[in-house]
């Protein structure tokens, strides 16, 4: 939700004293920089913004962002973010995590948040490896990758995050590269401005445990959809383009559509508008007791 205020939000408003603990050269630094610039571009207020994450190197990002943050359980960032948005639709909610957290144990939460079309911005820092637990094959690891969990090479086909997001019903689907700061900032801004579930597959190289999908590897392969005649308004075209992932890797917005939000269709929100501001705290003790009794 883009806000209009009388004061200009700057980087100082989002500054925190906690320093990132990632390895020097980690792609996540680029993601953090783009996310911070994105919230400034759309003028989101720190006290009205929540960053929710799961577990993993990437999931430490709430500590470095400013605003409010919740570091949840492994793979549970999306369900927590949904609860926040449903309770208080006025909040801006960013969900962050890695390919292991979001596309492994958290896959169900991601799929259901997307199909419900919650107004969330979900950034998956995709480095094709479990980094925090020091080098295991992740859902996006390429076939043949040798890791501690696959010493003879990975035999599982990698999951395609873009196709998964499209199939699940995400209404904004994009990919970008952490080292391409300007492009990343543009994509993040569009995602935050979008009314609906925005998914960004952020190619974010792990410099310690993934010596295959490096910064140079991606720079040799990526090209911007914006530099072609591609239009992100056709679902089947998006699904076709999502399958292009080899010598050439498209980045940019694959798909975008405007449709009803979950909060707009939910009967409670229709009646109360905002449970946090207009609901629970105004109930009398007798009413709360009756609700609990009826529920149990």
Structure description:
The protein is an alpha/beta fold and 296 residues long. It has helices at 28-41, 62-65, 77-87, 99-105, 107-116, 161-168, 181-193, 215-219, 235-242, 262-265, 267-272, 275-278, 285-295; strands at residues 49-53, 68-71, 92-98, 121-126, 172-177, 198-203, 222-224, 249-256. It folds into 2 domains: 22-260, Thiamin diphosphate (ThDP)-binding fold, Pyr/PP domains (Rossmann fold); 266-296, no CATH class. It has an 8-stranded mixed sheet, sandwiched between helices. Helix 2 (62-65) links the parallel strand 1 (49-53) and strand 2 (68-71). Helix 1 packs across helix 7 (181-193) and helix 4 packs across helix 5. The radius of gyration is 20 Å and the shape is globular. The mean pLDDT is 93.
């Amino acid at each position: 939700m883009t806000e209009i205020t009388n004061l200009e939000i700057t980087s100082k408003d989002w500054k925190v004293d906690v320093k990132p603990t990632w390895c020097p050269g980690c792609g996540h630094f680029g993601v953090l920089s783009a996310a911070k610039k994105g919230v400034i571009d759309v003028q989101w207020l720190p006290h009205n913004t929540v960053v929710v994450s799961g577990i993993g190197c990437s999931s430490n990002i709430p500590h470095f962002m400013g605003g409010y943050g919740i570091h949840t359980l492994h793979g549970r960032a999306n369900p927590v973010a949904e609860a926040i948005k449903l309770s208080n639709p006025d909040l801006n909610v960013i969900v962050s995590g890695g390919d292991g957290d979001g596309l492994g144990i958290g896959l169900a939460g991601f799929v259901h948040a997307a199909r419900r079309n919650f107004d969330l911005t979900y950034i998956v820092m995709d480095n094709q490896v479990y980094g925090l637990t020091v080098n295991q094959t992740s859902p996006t690891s390429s076939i043949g990758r040798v890791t501690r969990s696959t010493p003879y090479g990975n035999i599982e086909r990698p999951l395609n995050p873009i196709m998964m997001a499209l199939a699940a019903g995400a209404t904004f689907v994009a990919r970008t590269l952490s080292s391409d700061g300007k492009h990343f900032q543009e994509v993040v801004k569009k995602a935050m401005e979008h009314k609906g579930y925005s998914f960004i597959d952020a190619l974010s190289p792990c410099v310690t445990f993934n010596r295959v999908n490096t910064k140079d590897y991606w720079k040799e392969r990526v090209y911007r959809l914006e530099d072609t005649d591609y239009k992100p308004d056709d679902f089947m075209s998006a699904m076709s383009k999502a399958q292009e992932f080899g010598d050439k890797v498209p980045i940019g917005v694959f798909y975008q559509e405007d449709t009803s939000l979950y909060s707009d269709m939910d009967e409670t929100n229709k009646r109360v508008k905002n449970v946090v501001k207009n609901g629970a705290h105004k109930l009398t003790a007798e009413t709360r007791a009756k609700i609990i009794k009826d529920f149990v």
